[in-house]
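Lab meeting, item 3. Inverse folding demo.
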């Protein structure tokens, strides 16, 4: 039986749906007066969101686990409702997550593996945020500012140590690493807000 190309897989479809929905959320209400801003959001958020999820997946697979992205339809709906109800001032970014499981029933992921899988996406966002900040320092541009803020927010939100968010997994593994990562996200966003 022929293997389905990844672009036609369930995972790819759910990543695309999640990315489009999040791009609407992050570009609202600006898209009402400037519809083209949606495409800026799609590009910037696409890099941050897809990179974040693929880093989770990559690290999980490195440990030998099955791993794929699954969207959370209720999370996407909540994100859209929060954005519209708050006129874009409240961002809720929980569109789904990379699910992973051991292929060996005798081997379960340990705290360190779960923590490293959890921090991988945040590290990606912190690196991308830093690159956008550097590009903005060299060539000030609204897109670079927006890219830094989006990636800083994705890192910060995912580090909230609550429920299924990455922050809880990272904190259970290492409070020091969690603290360093969340401090980096806050510092980066503060720099963008006050310096740009």
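The presenter then showed the designed sequence:
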């Amino acid at each position: 039986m022929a293997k389905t190309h990844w672009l036609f897989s369930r995972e790819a479809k759910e990543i695309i749906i999640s990315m489009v929905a999040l791009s609407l959320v992050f570009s609202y209400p600006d898209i009402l007066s400037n519809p083209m801003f949606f495409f800026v959001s799609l590009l910037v958020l696409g890099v941050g969101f897809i990179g974040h999820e693929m880093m989770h997946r990559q690290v999980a697979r490195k440990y030998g686990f099955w791993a794929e992205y699954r969207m959370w339809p209720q999370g996407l709906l909540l994100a859209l409702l929060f954005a519209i109800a708050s006129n874009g001032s409240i961002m809720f970014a929980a569109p789904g997550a990379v699910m992973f499981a051991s292929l060996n029933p005798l081997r379960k992921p340990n705290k360190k593996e779960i923590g490293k899988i959890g921090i991988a996406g945040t590290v990606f966002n912190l690196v991308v945020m830093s690159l956008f900040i550097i590009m903005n320092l060299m060539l000030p541009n609204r897109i670079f500012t927006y890219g830094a803020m989006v990636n800083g927010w994705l890192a910060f939100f995912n580090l909230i140590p609550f429920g299924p968010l990455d922050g809880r997994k990272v904190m259970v593994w290492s409070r020091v690493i969690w603290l360093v990562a969340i401090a980096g996200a806050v510092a980066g966003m503060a720099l963008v807000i006050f310096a740009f």
